[in-house]
Amino acid sequence: MKIIEAENLKKDYNGFSAVKGVNFHINRGEIFGFLGPNGAGKTTTINMLTGLARISGGRVKLLGEDYTRNHKKAQAMMGIVPDESNLYEELNGWENLCFCGALYGMERDRREKRARELLEQFGLEDASSKPFKAYSKGMKRKLTIAAGIIHEPEILFLDEPTTGIDVAFARQIRNLIVDLHDRGTTIFLTTHYIEEAERLCERLAFIVEGEIVREGTVEELMREAQGENIVNFTLGGDFNEVKKEFKAVFPDYGYRIGRDSVISVHSPEAFSLLPLVQFFEERGLPVYEAKIARPSLEEVFVKVTGIELKKMQNQKEGRG
Amino acid sequence: MKTWIAFANILMKDMRNYYLKPPNISWGLIFPVAWTLMFFLRSPVAVEVRDLLPGVISLSILFGTTSMLAVTITFERKSRSFERLLLAPISLNLLMLAKTSGAIIFGMVNAFIPVVFAAFLTSLQGINWLMVLTSVIFIAITSTFLGLFIAVSVSQVFEAQTFSNFFRFPMIFLCGLFIPLQDLPVFLQPLSYALPLTYGADILKTAVNDNGIIPVPLSFLVLLAFSALLFAYSIYNVNRKWIS
Ligand SMILES: Nc1ncnc2c1ncn2[C@@H]1O[C@H](COP(=O)(O)OP(=O)(O)O)[C@@H](O)[C@H]1O
Ligand SMILES: [Mg+2]
Q1: CB of A191 closer than 6 A to ligand 1?
Q2: Where would you tag: which of A253, B5, B128, B165 has the fewest CB atoms within 10 A of its CB?
Q3: For the residues B167-188, what does the mean pLDDT come to?
């Protein structure tokens, strides 16, 4: 079931086209991700979906209902975590959470109960009475996520949830995201970390310069880039001795001899492994390892977008 | 019911966070106290204190409300926490009313500081208190919305302060607070009648000393019209500029 749909969604800033008519949807319960470099239009898209940016063209729907011109009803079902924490600096963690709950009309008992639960779940009990301005960057991000889900939204928007956060906190945050997903929250996240997208998202869209260049499940995206199937065998002997025979038995397969007795067998068709393993074993070459080589999402991304990874990282780091 | 919870909590947070914070309280109080002392203490004759009272009340409200909105709105806008409010499922009208109610109440409290001072210096008999209260409410609303108009027209707190002084200081001289309207140069008089405080101060003059020159119902009507216009224009501006 589609929870959010964007049809031909556009955003112009005084003639500059930041988002150029994107089409995508988010299924209920999934983690959907936008992966793209800085300036691709990720934040702008989130802002259009949540009501912080006026939509220049196209439509947005929530559960099939058009809300392009009026976001207020839809906002009740959304939780929004911006790329930079925007809670109240002078309020402490507890006050911030309770206030955010109140904004969504939660009664006092309920919001206080939720605030307590969240502070515990996020490991922030000790910081609950400290003012937000005294928090570290990672703690700030965690509290901002907690504030985004205090009202138990149907769908959570996470804009670059781990950008600029140190490794330990980033891991905690990723675990929290998986946790939320397990509890049934639909999540739309943006990121410029390919690894993060691969690890967390079920479906992904690559966005570059305001356009979605590819969209699909992680599996689908991988498959597309996979020109051929490759299996790497680690053998306990010299492959050269059986080279000729191999060609005769498996005329459709190609091979490449790598280092350390590894040979890569490749084929445009899917493999059947057993005949290969038998072939080697029967000729006195024990098979220690047979590994299907999958292209990484990284390779797929580079292939599809033509953007080098280093460039993505540098751009981001260069900003802050 | 649900939107009421949001409204009440926005108001209470602002109260606790801004209005009741010592530095802000003192800032809010400094103006009325300063005006009061400045004008009252150099007028030993009791009658003069009563003459000055309407003007001092008006200024206390004006300065109290407009200073506060520069903080509660411009500052939150700058720190991006205002986005949280824009993303909440409450209408923009209600949100802006919640953000301004605190200032309106603050302005009304400020209005009575000079009254308390005056009570020590002169007799306050014969004042139409109901009319004082009503006009204080109206002036507080109008000047709060003037502050709102300023706050949403700028992006920096200091700009808000500068811009409000651009409105506030001329008003001291042009609104008939201390110089009667009819004594102003003729070419300035139309300008006086274009400023909302002129009408608020005139009602207060009628209420305190019965010497206003504009019909009271007309003044109320003008204040109401100013409030509605300033509020509507501010909402329009927020919609246009902040949800870009
Ligand atoms: N308010 C704005 N005015 C003008 N241009 C903007 C504005 N916000 C974003 N942009 C531009 O739109 C493009 C997309 O920005 P953004 O959505 O923030 O990218 P991302 O989140 O993917 O890094 C960028 O080129 C950015 O400079
Ligand atoms: Mg962004």
Answers
A1: no
A2: B165
A3: 85
What is d(CA A212, CA A205) in angstroms, rounded to the nearest whole number?
A: 6
Residues of A in contact with B5 (CB under 8 A): 102, 105-107
How many residues are listed for chain A in this entry? 320
| Span A65-85, pLDDT tens digits | 999 999 999 999 999 999 999
Residue B182 neighbours by CB under 8 Å, 6+ apart:
B213
Cβ count within 10 A of residue A49: 24
Amino acid in position A150 = I
Reading the block at residue A281, the tokens are: 């074993």
Nearest Cα neighbor of A103 from A153, A43, A56, A177 is: A153
The finding on whether A19 has its CB within 6 A of some atom of ligand 1 is no
Alpha helices in chain B (DSSP H): 2-14, 22-40, 46-69, 76-78, 81-87, 92-121, 129-153, 157-174, 189-193, 196-209, 216-237
List, as one string, the DSSP characters of B88-129: SSS-HHHHHHHHHHHHHHHHHHHHHHHHHHHHHHS--TT--H
Closest CA to B239 of B104, B96, B70: B96
On whether the CB atoms of residues A48 and A8 are closer than 8 A, the answer is no
CA distance A162 to A169: 8
Phi-psi region of A3 (alpha: psi -120 to 50; beta: other; left: phi over 0): alpha
Whole-angstrom distance, CA of residue A281 vs CA of residue A283: 5
pTM to 2 decimals?
0.86
| Angstroms from A53 CA to nearest CA on chain B | 5
Whether the Cβ atoms of residue B110 and residue B61 lie closer than 8 Å to each other: yes
pLDDT band with cut points at 50, 70 and 90 for residue A303: confident
Ligand 2 is an ion; residues with CB less than 5 A from it? A 42-43
Ligand 1 closest atom vs CA A207: 22
